[in-house]
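In response to reviewer comment 3 from the previous cycle, which asked for concrete evidence that the modeling workflow produces usable outputs, we include below a single protein chain processed end to end. The sequence was submitted unchanged, and the resulting structure tokens are shown without manual editing.
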Amino acid sequence: MKTSYYKQQWYLLVTILSLAISPCMAQDAGLSVKKSTGDTGIILENNSGGNTILSLKGNERLRLTEDGKLGINTNTEPLAAFHIGGTQRLNALFGSYSTIGQTGGGLATILGNNVIASPTDDNQLLFLSGGTDGGQAIKMMYNEGISFHTFNDGQNHTAGATYTGNERMRIDLAGNVGINNPTPATRLDVNGSITLNGNLLQLSDARFKKDIQTISAEMVNNIDSIRGTYYEFDHNQAPGHEFAHGTQYGFIAQELMNFYPEVVNEGANGFYTVNYNSMIPVLVETIKDLRAKNAALNTTVDQTTSELSALSVKHNKLQKKVNKMNKKLNDLISQQQQ
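The workflow returned the following structure tokens.
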């Protein structure tokens, strides 16, 4: 554990400093220095118990409690196994790249990979090291939630240069998650396209529904009043929105809301969205209505065809009678002419 590592380093520092203390002073203070068992190290032991405090020029810098808590600049009992205190803005470095810091007036905690919190400017992040390496950061803000940032443009940066990592995701205080959207309005609010390898399932159990009604004929007839369109998004009118490029197919929200207002929603930003799934039941009932009308027409056609067939039979019978009468008439005319 990193905490244990730092404890060992501070133990060593305190031990070295204790060598400069006279044996008399050490004895009066209840301190003893002795060789450790089984290795070549040395031990500084607080024989009187209680806290072991390291002060420099009258200022407490380090405190080790009897129960093993280590505090740096706490001036009081450490609140955790490893506690860095003080009012100044601090960054703790673990290894070469990993840092934990705070942003000052922003009251945010930063977990950084090659990223540190600025020791002077509020809400400002800096690159830890130079070169072409990018950086990632997790920012935990008391009034905004948690945001995730990444950045790597391949350009050279100097250590301490401003980090302008792009915010990729945010979890706000209400639990809403935004991807490429710092102000999510729903449980999942995505700015851009989504690829789904699997099924998108929506709860539709009758046990969670009430006042269930079949879509009326009037609602079905409203289909005649709306239009399906194809279009392209105007990216110049939508800065910050990652709309798809190329030809798109869909409805116009302002037109649709005149006939199916329940499927159109106006967001807090004033823009309209459409619940396309809610149009599926309307289209289902429309298809059923067309099928019923088509079946009725087929029945009428069948009846008409049957009637025509019966008339055709009658016509054929009459035609035969007419033919017989014509034959008799022709025979009479021939006899008179003789």
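The mean pLDDT is 85. We consider this sufficient to address the reviewer's concern, and the full set will be provided in the supplementary archive.
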